């Protein structure tokens, strides 16, 4: 084949044009997902509220709200969004694999 440079085919196992649009690996899914979620100001606000409630409950022993009523829903939303991110990334991986297995035609002029 006329791949330039010639050693590229050997280095990439015969697949120099490999497409990858996924964001996560199994090891980076949860940290990257949480990092992306905390780019949203609403999640930072609810984290701040949760920290204040926890501080008021366990440090100074006074909080008008039960800590479980703030932490539970917040953790549930974070986990649900992380699962949604994982599902979307798995779909991207499936689409990438299908695209990478397509046969390409090469035209020489």
Roughly what fraction of the amino acids lie in strands?
under 5%
Largest sheet descriptor: none
Q: In terms of quaternary structure, what is this? A: single chain
Q: What is the averaged pLDDT score?
A: 85
Q: Which structural category fits the helices and strands?
A: mainly alpha
Rounded to an integer in angstroms, the radius of gyration calculated over CA atoms is 23 Å
How large is the count of helical segments? 4
Q: Kindly, what is the distance between the CA atoms of the first and last residues, rounded to a whole number of angstroms?
A: 15 Å
Kindly describe this structure:
- There is one protein chain.
- By secondary structure, this protein is mostly helical.
- Helices cover 61% and strands 0% of the residues.
- The chain is built from four helices and no strands.
- The two termini are 15 Å apart.
In short:
The chain contains four helices and no strands.
Could you list some keywords that capture this structure?
109 residues, mainly alpha, 0% strand
How are the SSEs ordered, and which strands pair?
Elements: H1 7-11, H2 29-37, H3 41-58, H4 67-100
Helix pairs in contact: 2-4, 3-4
């Amino acid at each position: 084949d006329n791949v330039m440079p010639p050693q590229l085919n050997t280095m990439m196992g015969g697949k120099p044009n490999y497409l990858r649009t996924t964001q996560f690996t199994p090891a980076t899914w949860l940290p990257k997902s949480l990092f992306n979620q905390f780019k949203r100001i609403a999640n930072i606000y609810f984290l701040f509220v949760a920290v204040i409630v926890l501080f008021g409950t366990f440090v100074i022993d006074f909080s008008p709200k039960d800590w479980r009523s703030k932490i539970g829903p917040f953790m549930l939303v974070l986990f649900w969004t992380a699962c949604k991110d994982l599902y979307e990334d798995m779909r991207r991986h499936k689409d990438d694999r299908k695209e990478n297995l397509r046969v390409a035609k090469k035209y020489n002029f």
